[in-house]
Write a structure and sequence with these properties.
8 helices, DNA-binding, Arc Repressor Mutant, subunit A, Rossmann fold, alpha/beta, 5-stranded parallel beta sheet, homodimer, elongated
DNA sequence: TTGTGGACTTAACAATTACATAATGTTAAA
DNA sequence: TTTAACATTATGTAATTGTTAAGTCCACAA
């Protein structure tokens, strides 16, 4: 199964470090973006919705830890991977780092090789525990908590609505035939009319507020950003 | 193109169900094996490396979901198809099912007919999913997403238009007679006039923006770059 | 029990779209 | 030039989907 390039945001106030890391991660096939201080990091994170954020701890305006704490209060970033860059023997900061919800930390001076292997490891780990939370664009679907978050706002879906959305979003872009939808969401022994699907689709569109479900006339529906 | 018999493993603690399903799938030409609980399912899966595993959710020792989760951690079973059998209104289980990586689920009580059609559909889908995306020159036709991309731009085709284009593009260069087109796209029981094809061809040409369908006067049409 | 509210389904109608065909224009071979 | 074959355009209709409101069912509380 092919996945599209992971997006990484790096925040550090030293241009040299930004460049070295960018270059190396870029070479690995990641899509890399940068920020030069805490405020810019927050801003760009909201724009880009990256899969991983690498934060230097010592940065102007806001430290990495502050940035992390702010991000973690928002549902879209709940799942986002965060790695801290810390000075070698700043013991206290890496403890604080884990407390605020970091996924890993790397000590300076940075070896590109090590950083890359840590980043790869992190993504591999996530892929394994995957299947839990779907994250497509700025939509987060959590089947455990039964919640859908769109642009920071939580939409409250009823059960059938949620299951339908979850099905479509589980394979973005793929068209689901009406039959498939019926058998997957309603089961084979339940018979409901065709309008029922439409009505649920409408409610989902209405509640999410954005247009992410496309009708393919005569065929079915698909989830698309 | 002939393929060898697909291997199916069925795990359920009710012997009657095992027998009914085995009998019916066997009749369809599948190679069928059985297991009567979760542990046996795991064991036999490793021995047999089946193409499809049908798991009852409620089983002694290990539930179907547990079996699935264990299998999915192993690379050999990453691609194996898995279908769950669930009680009709066990709400939570089918979402959990998809989470752990099921490909489909069927509700009990089981109708052999329905199960067979789902199994067949799954194998067909798999066959489709890899390699059915047509790429000719700078045109990409994806029958799963129902999209046509020409030079990075997506063209939106209606159902008949899409089916017609897909037919022609499936064998680039080959001329399709009008009769062939009619029977493949419209079916044998529907009768439409000859002009109908022309009109659809025109719309496709218009929507794609490029000239990729060649008229062979007195014969038919062909797809060409 | 009765009442209330939400989830789900359905019916009825509106809106949209796909489709087939008719009518007419264009092309190319004879 | 004639003519058969195809292209083009316009249009009515049938099929499909969108929308709204109302009804049913069920859970839960008073």
């Amino acid at each position: 199964m092919e996945t599209k390039a992971k997006r990484i945001l790096i925040a550090d106030d030293e241009p040299d470090i930004l460049e070295i890391i960018s270059y190396n991660l870029g070479k690995e096939g990641y899509e890399v973006y940068t920020a030069k201080d805490g405020n810019e990091a927050l801003e760009r994170a909201k724009q880009l919705n990256p899969d991983l954020i690498i934060l230097d701890i010592m940065m102007p305006y806001k430290t990495g830890i502050e940035v992390c704490r702010i991000l973690r209060t928002q549902p879209i970033f709940e799942q986002t991977l965060i790695i801290f860059l810390t000075a070698l023997n700043d013991e206290s900061s890496h403890i604080k780092g884990f407390e605020t919800g970091a996924d890993d930390y790397v000590t300076k001076p940075i070896s590109p090789k090590i950083l890359i292997s840590r980043v790869n490891a992190l993504f591999r780990r996530i892929q394994k525990e995957d299947g839990k939370i779907l994250k497509i664009g700025n939509i987060v679907i959590d089947p455990i908590k039964y919640t859908v978050v769109v642009n920071e706002n939580e939409a409250i879906l009823a059960k059938k609505e949620f299951e339908l959305l979850f099905l479509l979003a589980s394979k973005p872009g793929r068209v689901f035939l009406r039959n498939e939808i019926l058998s997957q969401v309603w089961g084979t022994s339940v018979i409901v009319g065709d309008r029922t699907i439409d009505v649920h689709i409408r409610k989902i569109r209405q509640k999410l507020g954005i247009d992410c479900i496309t009708t393919v006339k005569g065929v079915g529906y698909k989830f698309d950003i």
